[in-house]
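re the bet — no i am not wrong, look at it urself. input seq straight from the record:
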Amino acid sequence: MKAIDIIGKKFGRLTVISFSHSNGYRKYFLCKCECGKEKIIYKGSLLSGRTLSCGCFQKEQAKKYNTLPDDRGRLHQILAHMILRCEDKTNNRYHRYGARGITVCDEWKKDPESFCKWALSHGYSPGLTIDRIDNNKGYFPDNCRWSTPYEQARNMSKNVYITYNGKTQTLKDWSKELGIKNTTLHNRIHYYGWSIEKAFTTPVRPY
């Protein structure tokens, strides 16, 4: 990706204004925060979601919600990674999210503070991860919850009901009916991005 590719783009509260300088392979950009402050930031920190404000966001969270530094940082990164896997086509998980039409609601994207407020009032704790109730829908308040790794595993995409030729059932049931392994169908649909028709009708190659 060329250095100028991110100029004009927004990462959290930061808008990239111009290229600043390079330090070896590391490229730095001048960014303007929504609070009005300008700051030079490493490109990798913007793309990874480690930096989404000039520092004002963390200060506001500490003042308003009295959360621990680790909590603030984690929520900040959770939101950033949600946005990246839904919008950045170069992200290694985009095919499972953005390519399937999964989005992050404008409320959370435009105002990270609203995401923190929702998280802290809906059961957030450091040991939990954000989970979509309906895996075919995006990240928005009514479709998200905080779950343990075990609970989230139970809600994986392979447990979602799928309709094909007018019939609706779980992927596990389709696996039994079609004689194709559950993991094979799951990978075809959610990893490789195949259509339901192609995933269900393509014969499995013998080893």
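see?? The radius of gyration is 20 Å. told u. also Residues 69-87 form the longest helix (19 residues). so pay up
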